[in-house]
Amino acid sequence: MDIAAQIGAVKRQVGDRSVVLRRGYVAEPEDVWGACTERERLNSWFLPVSGDLTVGGRYQLEDNAHGEILRCQAPRLLQVTWEFGQAPPSTVEVRLKAVKGGTMFELEHSGLDDEQQWDQFGPGAVGIGWDLVVLGLGVHLAGFKHPEGWESSDEYYKYLAASNEAWRAAYEAAGAQPNVAAAAAERTLAAYTPSR
């Protein structure tokens, strides 16, 4: 994998307790929508999902977040609450737009109101996770899967480090002091790579 190209394909923006990722895919919006909303497809590239996958229903990602489906306007808008651990509930919104050559995918995770978490890790704590999702979606849309053992490979750790650096830069571009952004990034990478 060309890690620099994969990292560079994503535009990252940090807002007031929010992160936004944008990436173009060479796939029709209906295909990207299906990959993000159909249970079988989600199970194959993201995480096993259970629950009532309709507006007002509740979903559960295996060993991960859960929440309520707030809005679903195929094939362009999906909005859910995101409840994970002890953090206050937040909101994830996926927006798809047809563009020349495919689809512009935009994901916004807002309402990241755990001040202690944000102060300690900055946007990278959730940003790296969403970078992995955006990468996995691209691999899936291209008809591939990550190789067995990818999550313990050197390539995986290099990708995490590159994502972490991209989020550090986005945090600084959003107005964080360089030393604050660097310290948050250092703590985030240590949390994602405890065995390294």
Automatic annotation (TrEMBL):
Taking every annotated instance into account, which residue ranges of this chain make up the domain Activator of Hsp90 ATPase homologue 1/2-like C-terminal? 27-130
Where does the source fall among the domains of life? Bacteria
Instruction: Kindly give the SUPFAM superfamilies that the UniProt entry links to this protein.
Output: Bet v1-like
**Which family does the UniProt entry place this protein in?**
Belongs to the AHA1 family.
Protein name in the entry: Uncharacterized conserved protein YndB, AHSA1/START domain
Provide the species name: Amycolatopsis sacchari
